[in-house]
Amino acid sequence: MNKIYIIGVGLIGGSLALDIKKKRPEATIYGIDNSEQHLLEALELNIIDNKATIEDLDKADLVILSIPVDAAVELLPKVLDKVSDFGLVVDVGSTKLDICKVIENHPKRRNFLAMHPIAGTEFSGPKAAISNLFQHKTNIVCEVEKTAFKLQERALNLFTEIGMRMRYMNPESHDKHIAYVSHLSHISAFMLGKTVIEKEKNERDIFDMAGSGFESTVRLAKSSPAMWTPIFKQNKANVVETLEDYIKNLTQFKNMMQNDDFEGVFNEMKDTNYIKQILNGIK
Amino acid sequence: MNKIYIIGVGLIGGSLALDIKKKRPEATIYGIDNSEQHLLEALELNIIDNKATIEDLDKADLVILSIPVDAAVELLPKVLDKVSDFGLVVDVGSTKLDICKVIENHPKRRNFLAMHPIAGTEFSGPKAAISNLFQHKTNIVCEVEKTAFKLQERALNLFTEIGMRMRYMNPESHDKHIAYVSHLSHISAFMLGKTVIEKEKNERDIFDMAGSGFESTVRLAKSSPAMWTPIFKQNKANVVETLEDYIKNLTQFKNMMQNDDFEGVFNEMKDTNYIKQILNGIK
Known about the structure:
Two copies of one chain form a homodimer.
Chain A: E1 3-7, H1 11-23, E2 28-32, H2 36-44, E3 50-51, E4 62-65, H3 69-82, E5 88-91, H4 97-102, E6 112-117, E7 138-142, H5 149-161, E8 165-169, H6 171-200, H7 212-218, H8 225-234, H9 236-258, H10 262-272, H11 275-282
Parallel strand pairs in A: 1-2, 1-4, 2-3, 4-5, 5-6, 7-8
Antiparallel strand pairs in A: 6-7
Helix pairs in contact in A: 6-9
């Protein structure tokens, strides 16, 4: 695997480049990005070795597509058109149904593998790229049976080497469950941030009162709108369902408080403490 | 200040004891607690030097009341009855209006100082006590003018020495603002945890998909119901108001999604990214 092309040299693409370089010192890593500024930064930070364009992809052993999910759905067919019979394309976006659909009948379907490495931070761009981001994290692999065996193996070995454990799932299940464990957390944090800013914007002093609890709960509200808007759009039905459940639970909690049912309030929290065991299980 | 009594040797009381010991090596720290088990743990962990009871408080130079806010409102008048004219009582609970009210006409009002050191973790009990918890954190001080000058000074010096910056505020403002920057974060996390557990309880595997984003957003849902229920009860009106604002914002976000107004969704997130500057200001 000598020629690796990364399309989108931001947080995820850049962090993958850093880890892959360590595991494949013989490979040359090429960066492709809409933003000339990001390419220059990625070169300067030694994330990529060279710039490239879509036209060069016929020489690729591996192409990693790490761009916003709306752009990915548009670009993936063109990328597959370009790669050779021996080239492998993986995408690493946060939604999997639309991307798998858009190439289901593509003549090079067997050259594609859909993944979602579940890792990240609230930052974005090449400067946000960090080493070992994927260590001990989960990589969801979709429709693995539709990828040529030797190409599967190439990708799975590489992602195992950078520290990930694989989990196999169909795209529908992926998008449904990820709405709960990831997308809802983001909206919950964004709306918490909004609610507090609206109330307190004229009283900057008040934020002196914000402790580490607020800080960790609202952290995801720093995330990139350009990345998250297309995710919510593609996963609209699932995300709307999670929001309905969440709003229902919040409303019920509020009603308990208004009815002075503090035994109910206590029990809600007591039951939810079960999250401790679940989070311990993640580690 | 030779005799310091800590009523409630849990996370906050225990952590205060650890820091105060370092700054006042000459002092003896006495623990008072409903739970004999907690007292034994606190002794074993060297958090306190001796056990004591309410009857001993006439000998106290300083009493720190760090128990759930409903118990604090009941116990504070009795504690003030007991202390000598030279004893200082501070309470460190998360609500301030009810506690200030309950002793407003107490003959020893000038022996009391109301504080809220804004620090903590999601854990509880003596084993959760840690050193330096209060370093660089904010301590809200209420109705400072109602405390005898020499006693104020004693408390403010001590809390400054353990690393806190003081902010002065009336109890009404404290309870109103803390509902936004602290209490709402807790309910938001608890209901996020509940929503995800309800949906996924039969699919434990799914939590493999939960990344660090979910983990930090839901962290506060590990918090103690015994501590938080009385806080929500005492601060009911303010907390219900924050919940109404939060639910309104979530509903509006959901409606935008359902109406395919993804420009609106983008702008909501973009505007809320302003939380970055605010959080940088906290540090």
